[in-house]
Amino acid sequence: MPQFEQVSVFGSLIFWSLISFGLLFFILKKFAFPPILEALEEREKKIRSDIENSEKLKEEAQEIKKELEETLKAAHGKAETILQLAHDEGKKLQEKSLQETEAKVRQIQKDAEQEIQSSRNKLLQEIRSYTAALTIASTEKFLKKVLDDADKKRLVEESIEQVIEELEKRQNN
Amino acid sequence: MESPLHHFEVHTLIPIHIGGLDLSINNAVVAMWVGLAIIVGAFMLVVSRGISPIPGKLQSILEIALEFIRNLVFEFIGKEEGKKYVPFIASLFLFILACNLIGLVPGSYTITSQVVVTGTFACGIFIMTLVIGFSKHGMGFFGILVPPGVPKIMIPLMIPIEIVSMLARPISLAVRLFANMTAGHTILAVLFGLAMTSPLWVSWMPFGFTIIINGLEIAIAFIQAYIFTTLTCVYIGDVVKLH
Fold first, then answer.
1. pTM score of the predicted model
2. Of A25, A37, A46, Cβ closest to residue B91
3. What is the ipTM metric for this complex?
């Protein structure tokens, strides 16, 4: 095998391979590895911090969501209460206005009845006084003279006219 | 038909003799340089363009390779302790990978198929682990020869076994890489030789196999580089953690 037989080249092979490796090691260690390894580490750090950040953000978002849901729930509850209150209030108002209207109507009815009653009383009173006046006037005429039929008729008509006059006078007053 | 081991022969291109040493530049060294130049070129291209937070294709490939090696180092040596070994392990992986892959180019040479080269690296790593061990633990490093939980009576027996197992590490490391590369290339040479020498109605078969084995060899180039660096990490991790 040449690898065991060519003893004369062993020296140069060992020498040049060691020198070459040394040079490769020096160049790569000095110029190539540091920036690449640094970039790798930075990227790792960035990815780690990004992941951590995103997890933190996710947690925050979750919390915010929870809070929002709670707020929404509370708002819903509040809205329902407000709605219920408004409903109750409306009902109350409606009932109140109904009652008021009913009372008013009753009052008006009552007033009208009273008015009617008083008008009636007044009318009756008037009728009574006219009747009295008529009776007095008729009686006066009868007492003054015996009258013939034509006179009677005239007298009655006069009385009636007198009454009407009286009535009109009163009405005008 | 020429020997399938013929292409493992090293040919001197530029003879250099310093003192009694033959430091001639040969085809193996040139092939290695081409491989390393591609690696350095790729890294320099990415770095000179500026490292972008959103990587391009080449930057992604290099980042994946570096991240892969970094995780390997962290796994076997530990995160804090391992950081300073990342450049060395990464360079080692890239060196072996480049040498393995460049050897698959026809007419090129796989320097990792030279046992002296793999042996040099394996011995270098072995010595490095000893230096790390002693500098970290002082004399307490000898404790590595006594696995934890061994009854005291067994210690005299365990120490020689552990010494042998320690010494076997560089040998196995060196031979594994060398043997894999040599075997793969020998198979390729045999198959290609068959394809070239047999009549056309037969030659398509070994030629087809050459293509398949070549694909396999690419995978083996990666796997062997991975194994070499993983074991280096394991050995360093052992002496750092002391069991």
1. 0.73
2. A25
3. 0.91
